[in-house]
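Hi R.,

Here's the chain you asked about this morning:
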Amino acid sequence: MTTPDSYEGFRQFWANNQQTAISSYIANNQSFISNLLPEQAVQMPAVQLAYILEKRFGQSIFFQALNPENTIDSPVQEFADASWLKTVNMVGINVRTINSFWNVVKYALTLPKTQSSIHLLPIWECGVVASLYGIASWNINPEFFDNELAIAFPHLNTVEKQLKVVINILHLMGKTVGMDVIPHTDRYSEIAIANPQLFEWLQRREFEITDHSANLHEKVQERILDFIYQRGGTFSEYYPRQKEKFFDNNIFSEENRLRFLFGEKNNLEGRTKRRNEIINHLFSEGYEPVPATMAPPYRGLEVDNREEAKTVDEDGRVWRDYVITKPEKMSRVFGPLARVKLYESKNDNRDWEINFTQPRTFVWEYMAQKYGKFVADYNFDFMRGDMSHVQMNPNVSTSESDKYYDIHKYIKSTICQEKPSFGYFAESFLAPPNTMAYGVEEDHLEHSDTDTTLGDLQSMVVGSERFVSEFARYHHLLTTRKFAPNFTIMTADKDDPRFDEFYLKGNEIRMFMGLFLTDMPSYVGLGFEQRDPHPYPAPNEHYTKLYVFQLSEGEKATHGKYQWGQNGTLFQNLNILKIISEKINQDIENQPIEWLIEPKTYGQGKVIAWTQKINAKYIFIVNLDTDNKVRTDDVFESIIKGKTLYYSTTDTTRYDNGNTNLTPNFLAKAECRIYKV
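And the predicted structure, written out as tokens:
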């Protein structure tokens, strides 16, 4: 069957041939539905998807998965540790771009078994500018509820039930599922207001921070009790009048405190209104949580008094940005976010110094308990640690670290007591020492018991000296460190107009290396499959990053739904790579590789080649030069001598046919080949 190579061609192809493609999937001939554009997949009717899954997996098991009271075992349930995470090919999904959790299952129909892991970007209610990373509460985000699913299956009438069955079904499809673990919240989240003692606070009067003492949270607690005295609670007249009792979970549980302060969980409008009233009460006296910071020196804040650093919200409140008083290259302050306070301060915080010998253990336990419950309730398989590069201790030992060294480590170790296979995927960029964190970032990752880390290959132009040298370094780290760097193809936060240059060419190379470097994990964001090249910025609706938050005004505003790309040629080429990966996966899966032509750490030498170290079946060759063909040499000729060509990107309509119609003595620009040994 001839397949098209244009966007409209694929749309029409699916309209004319979908029954054949679906039948092949149902019959287990393929692990995914090929030639199905993700854009079309997420438009599939709920009843059609249910029919496909029921036929594929059987009525009994499918309806077990569709019951939120049941838990379908994860594909890695029986693993003794998280080593599986070190070679997995992962797909990151911003659920907001596809509207609902249920649509994640539809999208998963387009993923072969070799793309066996799904990372869901934050799933909780949002705060300022509706940023997914500014958690407003521990409630699952109601915007991810699927009305069509609830109509088809009325028992799935809450977003929590829908999330549970979605993870059940993804497990049934052979996918592992991960969530974000975030050590900060929205600056005035329900969490921060109900638990001021978990956070660090300051008091500001216009351009001056008038107080940032260590126990300022006690004054905030008093102000909240004053508000209650004036306005009353939302469901009961009884409450402990002393702050020591009101904010003590053993006396007045957090669940009761949240209901008392904000109202019933299912009344989002009422809770939001009530929270805004409490914010007004605190803000009028200048109380704010200390904002989260990134990169050394982390500490020491002052108000940014520039006019452009002022924001007036819809309620007339005037917000000021903050800056680091003695900034270094990567120093950042995230005004809308408040990081939990993990350690006590020195000298009543007069000099913004942290006492790392005094962890506030109740904060660590709180965070671990909260995230551990989500793992237990929904059966998540791993966590993606947001801002894992934060290492604030300039005197950290390079030889050992205790249990209170890093919050992500603590959360992982707590969860692993019940679920040994639970993994930790760190958001860090393998930056030079003392750039994003104090000390050597690779040491920090090992001290944190990281299984795998994101890295920064997605922020480099394929074939550039930097890309080649950094990839060589990453693969060296893979063999010398306890964690595995990712071959990162694209992430949700790099699908942004500022980073268009990274994806103008070489995208087939990215996916080829991601799928066939079998000793290295890979990560790609939703939307890459169809992404148009943007030599000039496209409208904001074409970038997944701009759906991490919701803005209606300004340069980052979006108006309407996410718009998929129309790059039919890229989709065709990546679809072929997915089919090939499925055909040869059993011969190469999880195998360590042996370099035949290794990448050079000094960035020169654009041709690389590898095979399997044990029982070699295939040879993979890539010309990383996206602008020029490369003349082959004696080394190359000796590698392919006597081997059968299986695939080349210069002829994507054919593979496994022994095609030899290639340019003699040359690799075409950006060409990738596979040979059978």
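The chain has three domains: 7-183+361-584, 186-341, 588-676.

Let me know if you need anything else.
M.
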